[in-house]
Amino acid sequence: MVSGAAIRRNTRRTRLAMVCLICLFGVAAVFISAGWWHQRAEEQLANKAAETLAVQAEALSGILDKYRLLPPLLSREPSVTALFQPDAVNPQEAARRKAVEIAGMSGAKEVAFFHPDGRVLATASSLFSDNIDEQSRLLVAVQQGRLGRQTVSLDSEQRAYGFAFGIRDNNRLIGAIAVYVDFDPVEATWSLSDNPIFVTDRLGTVFLTNRPQWRLKPLSQLMTQSGAPGHYMVDGKILHSDLTRDLPLLDWQLHVLSDERPMRTAWWTGATIAALVSALLGGIALFMVQRREAHQLRMRRDRASALRLERLVRERTRALSDTNISLSREVDERRIAEEQLRLAQAELVQAAKLAALGQMSAALSHEFNQPLTAIRTYADNAVRFLEKGRSDSVTDNLTRINGLVERMAGLSRSLLSFSRKPGTTIKSVPLVPIIDEALMLARPGAKKAGVALNFKPVESPCAVFGGQIRLSQVFVNLINNGVDALAGREDGELSICIQPGTNETIVRVVDNGPGIPPDQKISIFEPFFTTKDVGSGIGIGLSIASSIVRDFGGSLEVEDGVDGGACFVVRLKSAQETKAAAE
Questions:
Q1: What's the confidence (pLDDT) of residue 422?
Q2: Does the N-terminal or the C-terminal CB of the chain have fewer CB atoms within 10 Å?
Q3: How buried is residue 430: exposed, middle or buried, by Cβ count under 10 Å (0-12/13-18/19+)?
Q4: For residues 570 and 480, what is the distance between their CA atoms, to the nearest angstrom?
Q5: Residue 78: how many other CB atoms lie within 10 Å
Q6: What residues pair up with 205 in beta bridges, in sequence order?
Q7: What is residue 573's three-state secondary structure?
Q8: DSSP code per residue over 318-377
Q9: pLDDT at 583 over 50
Q10: Quick count: other Cβ atoms within 10 Å of Cβ 132?
């Protein structure tokens, strides 16, 4: 078995090697993760900038296309041509009003009318009327029959893009109309973007931008190369991805720049995540090494403890073997004693039934003697009637004899059934016939004691779980106890009522006797407890009845009756619920 010092020494070596591997893995993971996050951020910024570039290029081209067709269409208007006719009345004022009207309806920054030689006829706001250079370039294209295009800017930062077209009468150039496009709405839209967006003309001057401080300044003064290709220093910030799109018809270039800070943030984020994951994995690995060491030490201690226990087990095995032999004998003796106890209990139940039969024997002998005396009398009368030839009277006597014999046979069958040893099978049995049989057995004793028995059977079928003979014994015991309690009373009365239910059926046996004192209700179902006189009973009837009802899954309780007597409540499980579920 390996010693504890060797286990600790091997664990220290493993821990040192693990720390070195964790450091190497962490450094590699930091650089790989940081590069991957930086690349993803760069791709996202490039995609966003490209999307912005495409959208703004289309928006700028759409605005210019809107105004590009305006001068050719207006040049064909009769009201515009009439401004340059020799017979025009006050043409300058009419041209000014027309220019104001066109500018207001189209949203143009400026509308101007020119003579063929370049003189200004009228303008809407006189913004660009003094810019002779731009006007001359526009008129050159007009004189050639083309649509003139020209970028126009002033020192006051007034900027526009002009479209000019000639006004002709019978193919003779009589004037020109120029429409100047306002770019302030475009720049206002660009200002919503975080990325710098600007347009440069063919000379590299920033013409349009969402950075007001860049307007009309050379691009070379604003942007300087910063280290890596594609990186520029603008206003002290490093920008990336100089995406550009040419606008050939305008001779412009549209630029979109991206801030490099998100890429640096992504690099540090990736590095931090990789470092944390590496630290976590390293901590888990070191924890597993430490746990393995603790496990090995614990296994060593457990092994030593197991060896000591083995010695103790060997020493005590012999004593345990001897003890097991003696316990086996004791178990066999107790099993035999339990079997004898069960047999004694069964014999006790049967003895209680026979004792009940003994108590009823005097009354039952009277029940048998009366029919026998009547039979003898009817038989003697029949002989005399035969001698006299009165056959109808003989038939009547024989019929009466037959009824009395049937009555005695029924009573005899009930006694035989009650005296048999009951089985242990629990099944669905009808309750009303069982109570009728118990009343048949107990009625002679009740008649002798002057007690009236009342029972009104329920009309609907009523079945419960139990055994027929054992349930009959329960009700015989309850009725006999009630008759004994009412003995000697002139108005003694015992009633039995059934209350059917879905889950349980309740049977109440109520008498109007003296009742049961409260201090005796707790002990009344205990074996050998009785309130009768000595020689009238041994006190096991109610105990046996309670045990039988419990075996059937029910209960036997005692309550105070309405008239002050005792009320025994028998609760039995109804069989209708199981039958309905089966169907």
A1: 56
A2: C
A3: middle
A4: 16
A5: 6
A6: 218
A7: strand
A8: HHHHHHHHHHHHHHHHHHHHHHHHHHHHHHHHHHHHHHHHHHHHHHHHHHHHHHHHHHHH
A9: no
A10: 9
Task: Give the neighbor-by-neighbor strand order of the sheet with 224-225.
Answer: 206-209, 197-200, 252-259, 237-247, 231-234, 224-225
267, two tokens? 């690099």
pLDDT top residue among 378 and 433 = 433
Distance between CA atoms of residues 125 and 36, nearest Å: 57
DSSP 192: T
pLDDT value at position 554? 92
Rg, the chain, Cα only: 61
Give the other-Cβ count within 10 Å of 577's Cβ: 13
Q: What 3-state DSSP class applies to 28?
A: helix
Angle, helices 261-388 vs 431-449, to 10°: value is 50
Length of the chain: 583
Q: Mean pLDDT, the chain, as a whole number?
A: 77
Answering whether pTM is above 0.85, one says no
CA distance 147 to 250: 12
Distance CA 226, CA 136 (A): 42
The string of pLDDT tens digits covering residues 190-243 is 777 777 888 887 777 777 787 777 777 777 776 665 555 555 555 545 555 557
Helix axes 391-419, 431-449, angle to 10 degrees: 110
- Strand, helix or coil for residue 284: helix
Q: CA-CA distance, 356 to 343, in Å (whole number)?
A: 20
DSSP string for residues in 219-264: HHHH-EE-SSTTEEEETTEEEEEEEEEEETTTTEEEEEEEESHHHH
**CA-wise closest residue to 36 among 277, 241, 270:** 270
- Using pLDDT thresholds of 50, 70 and 90, give the confidence band for residue 571: very high
Q: Report pLDDT digits (tens) over 440-473.
A: 777 877 888 888 889 888 877 889 998 887 888 8
Q: What DSSP letter does each residue of 499-562 carry, written as one string? A: E--SSEEEEEEEE-SS---GGGTTTTTSTT---SPTTS--S-HHHHHHHHHHHTT-EEEEEE-T
**Secondary structure percentages of the chain, helix, strand, coil, to 5:** 60, 20, 25
**Predicted confidence (pLDDT) at residue 416 exceeds the cutoff of 60:** no
Give the C-alpha distances (Å, rounded to integers) separating 144 from 21, 140, 166, 173, 389. 80, 6, 9, 10, 165
Question: Please, which residues have CB within 8 angstroms of residue 60's CB and are 6 or more apart in sequence?
Answer: 186, 199, 208, 247, 254
Strands 452-455, 493-499: pairing is parallel
Is-contact 393 426, C-beta < 8 A? no
